[in-house]
What we know:
Layout (H helix, E strand, L loop, with lengths): L4 H29 L5 H16 L3 E7 L5 E6 L9 H18 L3 H4 L4 E5 L4 E6 L7 E6 L5 H15 L3
Antiparallel strand pairs: 1-2, 1-5, 3-4, 4-5
Helix pairs in contact: 1-3, 2-5
Amino acid sequence: MSINYRFVFSDILLLLYEILQIEVINLNRTRATNCRMKAEDQVLHDLCKRILESDKAIRFVGIPNKMGNQMVSCYRAGLVPLLTQQEVEIFAIESVLRMKTRKDYESKLGKPIYSFTLYQKLKRVTISLESKEYPILMASLDLEADHENIIVNKILPLINEEGL
């Protein structure tokens, strides 16, 4: 019997989407009432801020946890986000899942460093981190950005400085 993994994966994503609709709402309620930040969250927030400030073409930086819940995120000052907070949360879940599937081939292809996607309105990068709790860093860039230079010479060195 042959399994069509594309359909299985999309079914899983749809199920996760339905389940996480409630979780995103609950997470947003929790964030609204929880003003304290754990030390680890502060380190991640500072990293996101440093990355955002490293180049004016960086629009957004975020780090979700292993479940895809957006733990920290920073937007460029004055930026009007293209996605709602709920869409960002779902995008984070999908990005964590995609990076996990890439790691299935790590023994043959090597460790995934980053994945890049060009959209009509922006550029998006997902960078693999060395943290089990925080597996990826997501960033979006302006269309005219020199993404390879920004990723290799600005974002990756900052991530490496933090040991992530």
